[in-house]
Amino acid sequence: MPIATPSAVSDPARLAALDAYAILDTPPEAGFDDIVHLACRLCDVPVALVSFVAADRQWFKARAGFPDCETNLGSSVCAHALTHPDRVLVIPDLTADPRTAGNPLVTGEPFIRFYAGAPLVSPEGHVLGSLCVIDHRPRPDGLSETQTEDLVLLARQVMAQLALRRAVLARDFLQMEELRAFTVREALRDTQTALADADGDLDGVLRAVVDGAMRAVPAAEGCVVELIDGDHLEYRAVAGSLEPHRGLRVPLGGSLAGQCATSRTPLRMADAYTDPYVRRDLVKRLGLRSAVVAPILRGDVALGVLKLQSSRVDAFTDSDLVQVGMFASAATTGLGAAGTRRQMRAQDAYWRSLFDRLVEGFVVGEIVRDAGGRAVDWRYVEVNPAWGNLVGIEAAAAVGRTVREVLPGIEEAWITDFAQVVETGEPATFTRPVGVLRRWYDGRAFRLEGDRFGVIFMEATGRVQAEGRRNALLALGDELRDLNSIPHMTRIAAEIVGRALDATRAGFGRIVGDVEHIDIEPDWTAPGTASIAGRHRFEDYGDIRGHLRRGEPLVIDDVATDPRTRDGAAAWEAVGIRSLVNMPVRERGRTVAVFIVHDMHPRVWAPEELVFLRNVADRVEAGVARVRAEENQSVLNRELAHRLKNTLTVVQSIASQTLRGVTERDRVETFERRVLALSRAHDVLLERNWSTARLRAVTENVLAMQADLGRFALEGPDMEVGPQAALSLSLLLHELATNALKYGALSAESGRVRISWRTEDAREPVLILGWVESGGPPVTPPGGRGGFGSRLIRMGLLGTRDARLGFEPEGLRAEFRAPLADVQGQVH
Fold first, then answer.
1. pLDDT at residue 827, rounded to an integer
2. How far is CA 659 from CA 662, 667, 734, 757, in A?
3. CB 3.0–4.6 Å: which of 6, 117, 278, 673 could bond 81 by disulfide?
């Protein structure tokens, strides 16, 4: 059955007296601990307690031999001592006393049996509790007279300790109040000085107020002046934990600050989780748990509020609320001084409207420096709506935040270049990308006051990308013109396309079968992207074969959502593909290859990008066709050359057989050697695919048939000569060498021939070929018109008939001239 407690337990006057000592739930103190140990010794008991009886429990300030620091009132024996303020309550056997027989501490652990309690009486006569001693066995004789007197004396010492403790707390409180008052006075004085120095500058006024309020109220972790702007409050000046939230806007309705402003009444909020006016969506973001807020008034008109906040519950007192009111009044004074300046700003409304109507983006920024003064970031002070449209971010969301916060990973040049504008005062014009946005911008930055600067800019992404694609096509044309290897050609094209389109992979693949597989050649990849060179089966990647069969581009903006690929999206993403273009390369009406471009992110492929890829594919297709045509032509040339050589051999054989009976064998041999000279020239041209030959190689091949090459000295720069010039040169040198063997220098063992060539710039550049014999017998001009060989020599190179012959006693000297362009086979 419930155990009744004395009515004195709930006496309001007694409870108020207990609260005045502020003793409940305080930590142990040596003075009280010593008293319970002394009580145990004097009364010869195992347990002693300094017990205070509250409205709902008994709590032990000190205890010896007892495990718990408090019990409920149903387990309290000390509650019965409250009715005996003038004597010690002694119960020899707790099991026999009706007041305690059912007490849980008697019927159960720790099975107490004896109790004696001396009341703890306040100077006003209220019994706060008792100093009690307890035994685990009945004591019929109770305490001796001396023990009883000792227990009473110790109870008085408990009250003396309480009185001393309260006096010390009161003294400390007065000292703290004096210190706090001094701190507030100093903060107010410094704030007033700062207001005077601000000279009406609104930001300076508000900064002075929040700094002063933070000093005056140490419990505050953050401070803000919120000014009314239409139906919102704007965080205009911030300090402490609210520093990152400069520029934040909250509605007047439904917020603590709004309630303070509209009611024009100071408010103290103990707990944001239970306060009816707090916006729940801002509590965690602002680190708000308790606050004091006072209105900033001009007459009866609220201009805003001053708010101090903490992340702790009930961190502020009514005294703190008074201090906030004082600083709110100081803000009113400062705002009055700033009124004139605001009027001047009102006159600039037209310019602000113009700022907002600009189609160009406009930013006012302020450099953020580290402790050493180095620029490490910059903050958005103002932005116009066009800025938001150009970067795809709500303009209001950027104000008060830094560029690194708004655009994480932005290029360092966006900070260092603007810092240089501020440092030097020199404007700067730029065209620069924002990589995280994948956009380019043209702009001009210029210095404002202090660490502030302005930037006006327009997006240039389309122009820059168009220039990049145009330059890429030009570069591709230059590369393809000089390449003769199809794999090299496709690798170069892939790299140019990948970089021009800012893709993550580009490559070239050959179709296998009826668009069943694709063999991707070594591809170009962006850093961090793996190659997918090798064979792949189309069916593993979705329904994508039909487009390529029809020769249509396959364009996928997102493999995860496109109905053709979403069922196989995992296969695409496994190789780092979220969007792609496959541009087919056709040959005789069928798709034979595909030019591929991949991106690891979803991407909308612009029409001009697809046109660019079509142009690239066409150029690659043309380049591949050129290489294959050249390869085919080379095979054809070799086949024709082989047949021509066979024909010359047959001619020589037929001539030998036909002229076998001719008695003038020297003429027959001359004919055969001339055919052989043509054959040797043909061999040199064959090595160069019958296009051009090297002059030195032609000369050496012809002369080697006549004599040891050691008897010839060749001088002149090696050069290309056309097919016709090679044949003409072969016949000319053959005739000259033949005559030298018969009549000139080569007919003597010591004879030598120097053959030289050079070019000469005239009205038309010419090639000059020289032939000088020495060491042979004296030579004489041929009589009459001479034979075919003589006529061939006088015709000169390429039939120009520009041949100058000198029959000197020491040997023949000849010089032949021909237009250089004709020699090299150039087309006029």
1. 46
2. 5, 10, 21, 37
3. 117
Residue limits of CATH 3.30.450.40 in the chain: 7-169, 199-346, 465-630
One CATH from 3.40.190.10, 3.40.640.10, 2.60.120.260, 3.30.450.40 for 465-630 = 3.30.450.40
CATH superfamily of this structure's domain 199-346: GAF domain (3.30.450.40)
Question: Does residue 431 have a pLDDT over 80?
Answer: yes
Distance of CA 171 to the CA centre of its chain: 59
Give dist(CA 271, CA 184) in Å, integer. 25
Distances (CA, A) of 737 to 128, 788, 789, 799: 143, 15, 11, 19
Specify the pairing of strand 439-447 against strand 452-459: antiparallel
Distance CA 28, CA 670 (A): 135
Residue 34 is predicted with a pLDDT of 93
Mean pLDDT of the chain: 84
Please check whether residue 431 is in contact with residue 442, taking contact to mean a CB–CB distance below 8 angstroms. Answer: yes
The span from the CA of 337 to the CA of 343, in Å, is 11
| Rounded Cα gap, residues 60 and 541, in angstroms | 77
Q: Say if pTM beats, i.e. exceeds, 0.70.
A: no
pLDDT the model gives residue 688: 46
C-alpha triplet 238, 244, 249: angle, nearest 5° = 70
Look at residue 661 and tell me whether its pLDDT is greater than 80.
Answer: no
359-374: per-residue pLDDT in tens? 788 889 999 999 999 9
3: Cβ contacts below 8 Å, ≥ 6 apart: 74, 102, 103
**Could you report how far apart the first and last alpha carbons of the chain are, in Å?**
129
Q: In terms of C-beta distances under 8 Å and separation of at least 24 residues, what long-range contacts does 267-273 make, across chains too?
A: 267/292, 267/293, 267/294, 267/321, 268/292, 268/316, 268/318, 268/320, 268/321, 269/293, 270/313, 270/314, 271/313, 271/314
Backbone angles phi, psi at 345, to 5 degrees: -65, -30
**Nearest in space to 757 (alpha carbons), one of 689, 806, 825, 814:** 814
Structure tokens at 424: 């030097």
Average pLDDT over residues 784-811: 80
715/755 Cα distance (integer angstroms)? 6
pLDDT of 1 reads 40
Measured CA to CA, the distance from residue 305 to residue 228 in angstroms comes to 8
Per-residue model confidence (pLDDT) at position 93? 92
- Top-confidence range, 197-201, 411-415, 701-705, 732-736: 411-415
CA distances, 366 to each of 341, 375, 393 (Å): 21, 10, 19
- pLDDT digits over 217-253, tens only? 888 999 999 999 999 999 998 999 999 999 999 998 8
Cite the beta strand spans of 564-679 per DSSP E.
Answer: 579-587, 590-599
Looking at CATH, the fold of the domain delimited by 665-823 is given as Heat Shock Protein 90 (3.30.565)
* Rounded CA separation 563/728 (Å): 70
- In angstroms, the Cα distances linking 69 to 65, 104, 748 are 11, 16, 137
Q: Does 80 have pLDDT greater than 80?
A: yes
Strands 579-587 and 554-556: antiparallel
Q: What whole-number distance in Å separates Cα of residue 723 and Cα of residue 730?
A: 11
Q: What is the CA radius of gyration of the chain?
A: 54
**What CATH code would you report for 7-169?**
3.30.450.40
Report the CATH number of the 350-459 domain: 3.30.450.20
For the chain, helix (H) and strand (E) counts, in that order, are 23, 31
Q: What 3 state SS string does 552-596 have?
A: CCEEECCCCCCCCCHHHHHHHHHCCCCEEEEEEEEECCEEEEEEE
Please tell me the distance from the alpha carbon of residue 621 to that of residue 480, in angstroms, as a whole number.
10
Give the start-end residues of each E strand in 54-105.
57-64, 70-72, 89-91
